[in-house]
């Protein structure tokens, strides 16, 4: 945790500096021989490793049984080769196989395949394209952003007139024949 | 006696986790609600649509109270980030859904997204929107075997009852 010492008291700061100096001198006695500041980039020197025992004990350790230090490198490994029969049992277990889907049906509109609980991809793509074109018309009519009118909208195709139900509504015109799947109501 | 404990298990938790934090989850859902009110039909991952549905329907319930109501206006002000949609909510959507007691949205699943994640997608729309319908209501055809047999039975019953 960083301690923010703004040193409101100059005496406190002097005390801390003296303590730090003493600590440094005690830990690294050779370095601090009269240099101020002591730290700067220096060559990296490889420190001494632990006292090398190998010179004396080389002869002895090779004759000994593997000591405790070497036994930590034991790791688990298979003892026997798994036969192909055992392998087949594991690989072909029902839980490992891909489940077959039994909920695929034919879409009654277009004849493509669809899942029972999901919308037909082809029919949805058709509707999505038409919505995109309608939204382009809306965007053109509104002109700019944040211009949503406070009235309902109705979409009319070529040759259609607004009925009395579409009294106060905003009319969006699409320049094509009405598609069979978009029923006017 | 401990009455409530923040368990590491999530048994019984109803709200999903989205985004970076609870506030970010609300912002995400708020964006989706705004988009739904603006476009009346949006396509988004299924989990987000499902989560957003409850908030959207409650917002419409608040809007049905009328725009003179202070709480309703504050709710609309928070949930709709684009302020021209507040007018649309109170003047268009509230009268549209006045006769309905609830369930103003329709949530339908779509084929998985085309990208690498193959996410489960859904389309959520407000009922009564002017856009082309997603699902055509299928009338039972008269040509199916069961209907033909029932038709024959009805005709036989009529012929027996006539004289």
From TrEMBL, chain A:
SUPFAM superfamilies, A to Z: Zn-binding ribosomal proteins
Keywords noted in UniProt: Mitochondrion, Ribonucleoprotein, Ribosomal protein, Transit peptide
Claim: RNA-binding is one of the keywords in the record: no
Cell location: Mitochondrion
Keyword Ribonucleoprotein: yes
Function: Component of the mitochondrial large ribosomal subunit (mt-LSU). The mitochondrial ribosome (mitoribosome) is a large ribonucleoprotein complex responsible for the synthesis of proteins inside mitochondria.
Name the record gives this protein: Large ribosomal subunit protein bL32m
UniProt source species: Erythrocercus mccallii
Gene from which the chain derives: Mrpl32
From TrEMBL, chain B:
Domain of life of the native organism: Eukaryota
Pfam families, per database record: Ribosomal_L17
InterPro entries: Ribosomal_bL17, Ribosomal_bL17_sf
Localization per record: Mitochondrion
One GO BP: translation
Keyword field: Mitochondrion, Ribonucleoprotein, Ribosomal protein, Transit peptide
Principal location class: mitochondrion
Any one GO MF annotation of this record: structural constituent of ribosome
One GO CC term on file: mitochondrial large ribosomal subunit
Family: Belongs to the bacterial ribosomal protein bL17 family.
Protein name: Large ribosomal subunit protein bL17m
Organism listed in the record: Erythrocercus mccallii
């Amino acid at each position: 945790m960083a301690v923010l010492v703004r040193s409101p008291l100059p005496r406190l700061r002097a005390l801390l500096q003296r303590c730090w100096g003493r600590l440094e001198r005690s830990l690294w006695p050779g370095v601090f021989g009269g240099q101020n500041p002591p730290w700067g980039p220096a060559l990296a020197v490889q420190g001494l490793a632990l006292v090398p025992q190998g010179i004396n004990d080389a002869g002895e350790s090779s004759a000994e049984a593997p000591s405790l230090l070497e036994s930590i490198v034991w790791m688990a490994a298979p003892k026997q080769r798994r036969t192909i029969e055992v392998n087949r049992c594991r690989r072909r277990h029902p839980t490992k196989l891909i489940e077959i889907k039994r909920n695929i049906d034919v879409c009654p509109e277009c004849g493509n395949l669809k899942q029972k609980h999901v919308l037909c991809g082809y029919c949805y793509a058709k509707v999505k394209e038409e919505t995109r074109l309608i939204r382009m018309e809306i965007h053109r009519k509104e002109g700019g952003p944040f211009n949503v009118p406070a009235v309902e909208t109705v979409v009319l195709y070529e040759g259609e007139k607004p009925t009395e139900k579409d009294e106060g509504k905003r009319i969006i015109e699409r320049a094509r024949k009405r598609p069979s799947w978009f029923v006017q109501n | 006696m401990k009455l409530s404990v923040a368990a590491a298990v999530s048994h019984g938790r109803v709200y999903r986790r989205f985004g970076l934090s609870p506030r970010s989850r609300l912002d995400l859902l708020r964006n989706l609600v705004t988009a739904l009110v603006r476009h009346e039909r949006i396509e988004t991952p299924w989990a987000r649509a499902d989560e957003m549905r409850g908030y959207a329907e409650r917002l419409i319930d608040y809007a049905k109270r009328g725009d003179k109501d202070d709480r309703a206006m504050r709710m609309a002000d928070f949930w709709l980030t684009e302020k021209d949609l507040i007018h649309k909510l109170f003047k268009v959507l509230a009268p549209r859904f006045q006769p309905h007691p609830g369930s103003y949205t329709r949530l339908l699943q779509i084929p998985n997204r085309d990208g690498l994640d193959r996410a489960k997608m859904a389309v959520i729309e407000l009922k009564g929107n002017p856009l082309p319908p997603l699902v055509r209501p299928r009338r039972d055809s008269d040509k199916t075997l069961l209907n033909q047999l029932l038709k024959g039975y009805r005709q036989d019953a009529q012929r027996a009852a006539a004289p």
